[in-house]
Structures are given as structure tokens and as C-alpha cells.
Amino acid sequence: MALDTESFELLLAAVQRFVRERLVPAENILEETDDVPADIIEDMKAMGLFGLTVPEEFGGIGLCVSQEVQVNYELGRTATAFRSVFGTNIGIGSQGILMDGTPEQKSDYLPKVASGELVMSFALTEPDAGSDAASLKTRAELDGDHYVLSGTKRFITNAPRAGAFTLMARTGGPGAGGVSSFIVPADLPGIKLGKTDKKMGQRGTKTCDVILENVRVPAANIIGGVPGQGFKTAMKVLDRGRLNISAVACGMAQRILEESVGYARDRKQFGKAIGEFQLIQAMLADSQAELLAGWSLVQDVARRFDGKPAHVSDPDISMRVSCAKLFCTEMVGRVADRGVQVHGGAGYINEYPVERFYRDSRLLRLYEGTTQIQQIIIGRELMRQG
Ligand code: COS
């Protein structure tokens, strides 16, 4: 599955223009209102951004992973909250249905996802199950042809905007084998949302608890129809999600670098532009080199991803995804830190975009698996391969 090259080039150019002309100028509004303006969301729907990765047969654009990472690179060049409006839809919110869903689940949900009519979000994390995702406690008890779900999901991105969740709950015994993934419509009786989290950065991205109290979900809503497969679905979804976070990290690093070079050209000290000093150039050079290394890695892993069927997982590719997530998200942390340093005191003032990117980038090392979880995945696979 991929969009033909000519159409993709046009789409990418349109996304670049949209980021430059619509999103970058709205970054301050986002920061002040903690929300994405409604007219921007409408423009995103009109551009087809809600259906980027949904196959054409279900009304989407049908990008392959190599194309998706390029779009995410461009979106990384502005505030992350813009992407989060539709990012869960085309990413972790709906990929489970795409990868492992039954034909009925695909035809019921994916067209609505692609049009933006249905916003989906991914609900795995719980108060006591973060990195140790397989220990999740949300119960799903079979009762006739329904499951009754009770539990709390935490830090759920886009929950306040979601029409449905891809939600992991325990249908069986302890551990990964007891977990199933459900499609849970957000308006079912018994679902409540907690208050919106106040975060360090990524303002405009909405996250909150999702509390389930005896929520009756049809058994037919188990993704793929077979209980006990949900942890694997979640991990496969996260593999693709982590690669996309890596692409966002590279785009963000590119923007921070551009802001830093621009500042270094304009700002004069000791009688000349600070960019003429080699100590400033050294910081810019390190950022450029690391950014190019990260982006090459992302594109390589994306090509490997495209070389296999979407629903099949490959431990070697999962390991490489973790390398990309680890390297690129740590890399953007260093680039953001240097960006602030190049700006000097101005970099600590919120008039300059680097201040916001410094805060926004911090989350990339945490969500969709911390750096330490990526290290564990890489280390385990190295030991397995021998
Ligand atoms: N694709 C497909 N299947 C996978 C997989 C992948 N990428 N990773 C693991 N699995 C399978 C394993 O093969 C295993 O299957 P079997 O029981 O048939 O052998 C099963 O899933 C359990 O895997 P594992 O034993 O590795 O599970 P662990 O409990 O040890 O946990 C980690 C694995 C730590 C990697 C996992 O819990 C994780 O990624 N944690 C971070 C969670 C996260 O990213 N949270 C962010 C939430 S979204 S913002």
C-alpha cells in the first residue's frame, strides 16, 4: 500500500505549505488558548489529514510508512499539538483495527476515521501500568454477548475529542496473554473523563483519564474477534507509532536548528554576528550531524517496515524501531538544549519558539515507551539474536 509518487509529492508540498502558512503563525494562539482553533481542524479534514494512513478502499489516502514518516517530519516542524488532533486517528488510535481488525470492523470504522467524523484514541496506560503495560488491571468480564469493562486509563491523548477508543482490558489471566483490545465507543453508559491534565508542554494536546464503570461493550468489538491477542496488537501499533514519533523528533530538530541559525545570524555580540564564532558553530554543527543521522535511520527503518505485511511483526524491525525512537527523541532533547543555549537568555523567554520546543520535546522521550523501555527492547533482541 502506497500513494503513487506524483500524488505524494503534491500532498507533501501541500503539507509543507500548510505548516508554513497556517500552523506556524497559529503557534502562539495554541500556547495562549491551550486549544487548536476549530477552523484549522476543518482545514485538516479537508486536506485528508485524518485519513492519511487509511487505505484508499476505506476512503483514506493510503500512505505507506516511508511516506507517513515524511509527512510527520514536516508536521514536526511546528507545535506538536496540531498533529495530535489527527495523529491518534491515523496512528495508534486506529492502526489496531487496520492491522488486526475483522473485515466488518474495518468497513464499519475506517471510513469514519478517514473522513474525520470519528476521532479515535489509544487507551493502554493505567495508574499502575505504564512501562509494564502487560500488568494492566482494567477488567473485561464476559456476560452473554457483551463484555463488562471496569477500570481507569491514564494520560489518554485526545480522549476529550475521541468518539471511540482502542482500549486494552483483561479478559483472561495475568500477563500479556490475558489482554484483549476492544473498540469502545466513547458515548457508552459508564464512561467518564477525568479533568484535562496540565502538562509541562505540548499545550493544545488534550490528555485525561478515561474511567470505565461497568461499561457494556459487545463481544464483537474485540479487535480481530479473538480474545487474548490484544497485547500483541498494542505492541504492533506502538512499533509504527514509535517510528512516527522518531520522524516528528527529526522535524522538530530541523525547526529548532533553523531558529537557532536564524538567531545566530541576527544576534550581534563582540562586534559581529554570534554565528561567526566557532563555539556557536560547534553547537549548530553537532545538531545538524545528529539530525541527519537520526533522519537516515528513520527512513531506513520505514523502508524495512514497508517490506513486510502491516499485520506481521518482525522482532528485528521492532528492535530497529526502538533504536530510532531512542536515538531521535534523545537527539531532539540535545538539539533543543543547544537551541536554547545559542539563544542565550532569550531562549528562556517564551517569545522565542525554542523555549516552547524545549518543553514540547521533553515528552517525546517518555510517551509511546520511555528511552529505557527502548533500551530493554533493543537489549533483549540482541541477546535473542545472539
Ligand atoms: N509486536 C508483536 N508482538 C510483540 C511485540 C511486538 N513489537 N512485542 C512483544 N510482543 C509479544 C511477545 O512476542 C510476547 O508474545 P508470546 O507471549 O506469544 O511470546 C508478548 O507480546 C509479550 O511480550 P513480552 O514478554 O516482551 O512482554 P513484557 O511484559 O516483557 O513487556 C515491553 C514488553 C516492556 C516491551 C512492553 O510492555 C512495552 O512496550 N512497554 C511500554 C509500554 C508503552 O510504550 N506505553 C506507552 C503507552 S502509549 S503512549
Automatic annotation (TrEMBL):
UniProt pathway annotation: Amino-acid degradation; L-valine degradation
Domain Acyl-CoA dehydrogenase/oxidase C-terminal: start-end pairs: 228-382
Source species, domain of life: Bacteria
UniProt keyword Flavoprotein, yes or no: yes
Single GO biological process annotation from the record: branched-chain amino acid catabolic process
Example GO molecular function: acyl-CoA dehydrogenase activity
Gene3D superfamilies in alphabetical order: Acyl-CoA dehydrogenase/oxidase, N-terminal domain, Butyryl-CoA Dehydrogenase, subunit A, domain 2, Butyryl-CoA Dehydrogenase, subunit A, domain 3
Residue ranges of every copy of the Acyl-CoA oxidase/dehydrogenase middle domain listed in the record: 121-215
Domain Acyl-CoA dehydrogenase/oxidase N-terminal residue range list: 5-117
EC number: 1.3.8.-
Keywords: Branched-chain amino acid catabolism, FAD, Flavoprotein, Oxidoreductase
Cofactor(s) it depends on: FAD
Keyword Aminoacyl-tRNA synthetase set for record: no
Family: Belongs to the acyl-CoA dehydrogenase family.
Protein name according to UniProt: Acyl-CoA dehydrogenase
Lineage: Bacteria, Pseudomonadati, Pseudomonadota, Betaproteobacteria, Burkholderiales
